[in-house]
Amino acid sequence: MSVRNATYKPWAWTQSLFADGNILRLFIACVAIFVGMSILKPDVFPTAENFLSMGSQFPEIGILAMAIMITMLTGGIDLSVVSIANLSGVLAALVIRALIPADAEAGQVMMGLAAAITAAFLSGALAGLINGALVAYVNLTPILATLGTMTLYTGLTVAMTRGNAVFAENRLVFIGNTNVLGFIPIPLIIFAVVVALFALLLNRTPFGVKVYMIGSNINAARFSGINVRRVLLTTYIISGLLAAVVAVIFLGRNNSAKWDFAPSYVLQAIVVAVLAGVNPSGGSGRVLGIVLAILALQFVSTGMNMLLFTISGGQFFKEFAWGALLLTIMVANHLSEQRRSKSARRPKAE
Amino acid sequence: MADAFLSLSHISKSYAGVQALDDVSLIVKPAEIHCLVGENGSGKSTLIKIIAGVVSPDEGQIVINGKPFPRLAPMDAIREGIQVIYQDFSLFPNLTVAENIALNYELSRNTRIVRWGEVRRLAQAALDKIGVRLPLDAEVESIPVADKQLVAIARALVQNARLIIMDEATTALTEKEIRALFGVIRNVQRDGVAVLFVSHKLNEVLEIADKAMIIRNGKVVVDADAAALDRNKLVYYMTGRRIDEADYDYVPQSKQPLLEVSHLSSPGNFEDISFSLYPGEIVGVTGLLGSGRTELALSLFGVLPAMRGEVRIDGQLVRIRDIQSAIRHGIGYVPEDRLTEGLFLDQSINRNIVIRTIDTLRQAGGLLSPARLEAHAREWINNLSIKTSNPELPVKSLSGGNQQRVVLAKWLASKPRILILNGPTVGVDVGSKTELHEIIKSLAGEGIGILVISDDIPELLHLCNRILLMRRGRLAGMFERAVLDENKLTTLLTESTTIGSAVPSPQVQ
Ligand SMILES: Nc1ncnc2c1ncn2[C@@H]1O[C@H](COP(=O)(O)OP(=O)(O)OP(=O)(O)O)[C@@H](O)[C@H]1O
Ligand SMILES: [Mg+2]
Question: In B259-365, which residue ranges form alpha helices assigned H by DSSP?
Fold first, then answer.
């Protein structure tokens, strides 16, 4: 064999980036949709205004998709993310109401907000811990465990609020209203920071590598001495923390939290994760995929709105367009997989 | 060649810069037993996948039964009577033994109703043919590797094959099952069935083959009657050199045993096992399938905690409750089933190697250093001569023998004090086996204690200074290397009654 062991090439990751057909196709889809929409709606689509509005729309789903992604990487799923976000949001709003009187001074406001955000994160982490314990220690199937806790957390939120919305006294709306430097919405900045930290966590920490290994072969992971339970537990805690971040953005945007806010976001986040190329049975998926997938979907839904806003019921085309995009990319992936498997090494299980 | 069943001519195949096969031609006649031998990564499995229609060649012709197949599809190959037992068996893990063996055949009758009674009957008949007993209703996932191999073989036999291809299908089987299997092969041969057999156990090859084809780096080196070859010639043609392996020269290093096992029992698996392992020792554990040797290893590694008995490490009583505690006590285990217990097939070669030691590969700030990770993996890729064009490729792109080295590398990298190797060189070619043995010996020389579970007799004799023999869950004997030779060990291993004449050695020291 005329092969030598390759030496370390710092640029090797770019190769694997494009060897990864899914990322390449997503990138092409993004650019194509962007260019297409810009040609169809040159006066409204490629404008600063539109970018601003798009940039403030996708961060929540994008972050929820990362919560779905990390659990999917281990071969699981967390269906309770939106329930956790609503629970944490309600708790944060209650803390704000309790600690910040209407005539509070700046210092008091800061303390109160810090306490509220801490409450959101603690509750998110605790909810994640319960999920993780059910999956890792009680050995429940993730989909069933988190379906159960989804109902549990929602019920808890209803019980705490008697089903009413809890208002956050305009204390967090700056998050939803401010554009840093005049053109960057704060949720977008939060999204960017979360993406960066999340990518570091998955790619540059032993924990991240273990997450992938567990999803790839949980039995071999045990035999390799990975503390599988602890890694799974941590995974669900991280998912809960990401939901808490979303809770804060929700409060910033709506100025209130309620038990039944945005239930459809769970499925949308799953769509993003799957479109991003995260393997639902675990072991593969990239953060970059999440970014490209959420962008592609945002371009599609905004573009569709612009094209169809005159038609009554046009907004429903968003769902239609998402479905169409998802299926297109999946079929493309499948076809290329088939083409490759003919020349690949391992036979598919017959 | 009118009477050839299969004729391949001028087949070439390359993978991203690796020439896996280069102008290979092969003719298989009915009732012929062919062997394919070559080093790891020489292209054997690739050739077989081409015959099965799973991989298309870049160049060359395939003619089966006189019909040319410009684009052979897997269904064509099956229809022409080619049955392949892959190196990684491709059984259905969550179907039962009986379903795995006979369901395909039953479904191929093209009726709408599956006759479940018939499925069981066919499965039983196939198992009877190779003379083994397996629980028909057990899920394949839950049975040991050797049994999986038997299931895969039985399945091929059910299907009225004209050519049965076995790609290292016997690696986990011991003498006894292999004897039975060879009986079956000679039987089907009488019915005109041809067999293509790949194995690294050269003694097996020479025993069963009519013809042998030796490939090296994807090229045919020799294609001859097996009668014209002997073990040394095979090795020479495969590797291009002569191989001489010296026995392990154990030098006692300490009077304090590293590991002492006393009266260890796990009901149903093994009973009352006592032995000790001193620093620098390589102790072999052998026995037939079902002798409890693997269960003993699993119990020392915390997978199957023992019910009774004591384990001491450095004289201290320890309790091994789970894998984590075994690892904390410095125990490492290279599992026998690399596919389900050893490898992360879709993950990169690098990650597979470093996963044990990954916590130590952080730089200041706690993040992993890709350069250190890569350097660490490369060190082991070089140490174990793992043949790869790019260590970022998934480990499943490696040939079987190279995959086995990755599993070894993972554990060697973690520097355990006590290393349990269950079939450490399964599927590794003769030349590389010697290299791996040298590595194992030098580790022992550094003072770690090694248990080698194996039924590869030359391997046990080359590596070990002491050999434990297990039989039906009990320790049936303990022998110094010096009192054994190949014949004696073979007899001991296959003998079904308790040992009479063998001289159990006194304990070391
Ligand atoms: N899908 C693939 N991608 C890249 N390289 C591959 C692929 N499949 C096989 N190879 C390479 O082709 C060569 C031949 O591999 P093959 O599996 O045929 O070897 P083999 O003779 O069966 O070895 P072994 O005895 O270890 O099983 C090896 O170098 C292997 O790494
Ligand atoms: Mg092979």
Answer: 293-300, 323-328, 349-354
| Interface touch A225/B327, C-beta < 8 Å | yes
The Cα A185–Cα A311 span in angstroms is 29
Whether A98 contacts chain B with CB within 8 A: no
ipTM confidence: 0.85
φ/ψ of B84, rounded to 5, equals -115, 135
- Does the pLDDT at position A17 exceed 70? no
- B248-330+416-509: what fold? Rossmann fold (3.40.50)
**In testing the pocket of ligand 1, which one of B15, B49, B216, B404 has its CB within 8 Å of the most ligand atoms?**
B15
Q: Could you read off the pLDDT of A260-272 as tens digits, one per residue?
A: 998 889 999 999 9
Architecture field, domain B6-239: 3-Layer(aba) Sandwich (3.40)
**Which of B362, B390, B410 is closest, CB to CB, to A6?**
B390
SS3 label, residue B494: helix
Residue extents of the structural domains in chain B: 6-239, 248-330+416-509, 343-415
How many angstroms does the Cα of residue B87 sit away from the middle of ligand 2? 6
Q: Taking residues B194-201, what's their average pLDDT?
A: 90
Distance, CA B341 to ligand 2 centroid (Å)?
19
Nearest CA to ligand 1 atom 25: B40
B335 and A217 in contact by Cβ < 8 A?
no
Whole-model pTM above 0.80? Answer: yes
CA dihedral B304, B286, B274, B507 (to 10 degrees): -150
Q: Is B41 in the pocket of ligand 1 (CB under 6 A)?
A: yes
Q: Which residues of chain B make contact with A3, given a CB cutoff of 8 A?
A: 17-18, 387-389
Q: Do domains B6-239 and B248-330+416-509 have the same CATH topology?
A: yes
Residue closest via CA to ligand 1's atom 10 equals B397
Minimum-distance ligand 1 atom for the alpha carbon of B429: 25
Rounded Cα gap, residues B342 and B113, in angstroms:
39
When CB atoms are compared, the residue of B74, B88, B344 closest to A217 is B344
What is the count of residue pairs from A and B with beta carbons less than 8 Å apart? 123
